[in-house]
Specification:
The protein is mostly helical. It has one domain. The protein has 1 helix and no strands. The longest helix is centred in the middle third of the chain and has 35 residues.
């Protein structure tokens, strides 16, 4: 296996990690904004 192929596979895994982190951050942002708007529901 060449070094280039290994590097490409690592980049794909990093991209997946970044997407998961972005989705988590977005979910937390939506939740916190909802709590700020309507705190009595939580």
């Amino acid at each position: 296996m060449s070094a280039c192929a290994t590097r490409h596979e690592g980049a794909a895994a990093m991209t997946l990690d970044l997407w998961l982190a972005a989705l988590t951050a977005l979910g937390l942002l939506v939740y916190l904004v909802a709590v700020l708007i309507r705190p009595e529901r939580f």
